[in-house]
Amino acid sequence: MRHTTRATTAIAIAGIVGATLTGASAAQPDGSAAQPEDPGAQAQNPVYFVHGWGDEAKDCTDTWGNAVEHFAETEGMAPSKLHMLQYYDGDYADDDACNERAGGELTYADISGDGENDGTNDTRIRHVAAAFAHQLADEHDGEKIDIVAHSMGGLITRVALLGTAQGWDDFPTDSDGSPAELNVDDVVTLGTPHQGVIQKFGNTNDDTQWKSMDPDSEFMRVLHLPENRLSRDWAQDVDWSFVGSNEDDTVTGESAIDIGFHADHKYLYRGGNELEVTHGTIRTFVAGDHHFNLRHTHVGEGTTDTTEGRAPVALAWRAITDKDR
Fold first, then answer.
1. Residues of the chain predicted below pLDDT 50
2. 61-64-70 Cα angle (round to 5)
3. How far apart are CA 313 and CA 29, in angstroms?
4. Closest to 322 in 3D by CA, of 286, 303, 298
5. What is the spatial distance between Cα 306 and Cα 203, in angstroms, rounded to a whole number?
6. Phi–psi pair at 59, nearest 5 degrees
7. pTM
8. What are the boundaries of each domain within the chain?
9. What is the CATH topology of the domain spanning 6-320?
10. What are the start-end ranges of the H helices in 20-177?
11. pLDDT digit string, tens, across residues 95-151
């Protein structure tokens, strides 16, 4: 049965905060003044930010503060078009600081109690994905959407689109019973375990979501069945960008770019960077532009290595806006 999700808009915080990752107030990484707002940014599709796995509710500023500041303050997007997905009970409870980083009202979409999602890490990824798919179908009928996801958030996003397109149970449908049209335009995943997480000795995580991210799990097997791959027709209307790092000790670079399988664009931070791109910093680094060892591959264009790659958050922005990367 279709349900109505709860999307709420936070209270605006007056003023604009300019603190960046490097501590400069309103400056670019090279110390120059911030560039004027791009008029095209105001016409940009709404963007959902989807966080990754956790053993407790997420803090908005710690998770996405740098990203929302970059998208809104630096690039000029309206803060209200930045949607913060809440799927754990208590996610982003203190949102004032996050709004302040964006310079205005972010939009908060709470799916922590929707459908089969009970708001904990023992909820199946599939159930969180179904709730997210309903959020997109119910709140954005006919409106193009972009998604930036970190870690497990990329799996939630991928399954939201996959399950809807394939007509899986509990995913949104139109009135005639056919799969709903989610109208997702661009997806960027940062450090997502498309082929599973690194299995570390002594790891004690035994919740449902973590076990699904085991490379040998049934979840991973189903995700890579021939009919579910991104090379199939169901995924062709979406521009998929996968970003990974060889300095990530939770998700290997190869897993993050789904090595051996299709994605439209793949970006691999190769290591030896001026700033280390870890599992956490892959969603926070904005500064350090043109100081990253980056390998990028685009379908039909081959692979290029550069020592002047952009920082991950800046790269994500350019990926969803289809700018030169």
1. 1-36
2. 105
3. 13
4. 298
5. 35
6. -95, 125
7. 0.87
8. 6-320
9. Rossmann fold (3.40.50)
10. 39-42, 60-69, 96-102, 125-139, 152-165
11. 899 999 999 999 999 999 999 999 999 999 999 999 999 999 999 988 999 999 999
